[in-house]
Amino acid sequence: MPENTTDTPTPAPTARGRLGYVLGRTLPTELHPWVIEDTTGPGATRRYATRCLIPLIPILVALLLIPGPLIIRTGMVLLLFLPFVYFLFALKSIYLRHRLVSHGLDPALLDAHKQRHLDQEQASYESRYRAAP
Q1: pTM greater than 0.90 (yes/no)
Q2: From residue 10, how far is each of 2, 6, 18, 34, 121 by CA, in Å?
């Protein structure tokens, strides 16, 4: 059976627009569906973490190149990296909400995916254990 061809793909930003988006700029209104998919869709956490960790890599490499014992250099890297990753994930929802608000979108969209999943689990539970006899 042929697929439904009436669905139009979500327009994606150009390379320049995507770079601006990564650096904190807002995208035009016609790209809001892409922003919603980027911040709430599958892989949003991975994309968020990647965007935040890539700028840290040169700093960590520079710390490893400082002369001295390996344990000291490793300690410097870990003292920077571990708290960074901790706060990266602790502040994820705040940052993604800010991203939605800065584009003029409803921050409640961030919880929509989670709520759908909880609703599916509840419906599954109720159909399994609370079915009428």
Answers
A1: no
A2: 20, 12, 14, 6, 29
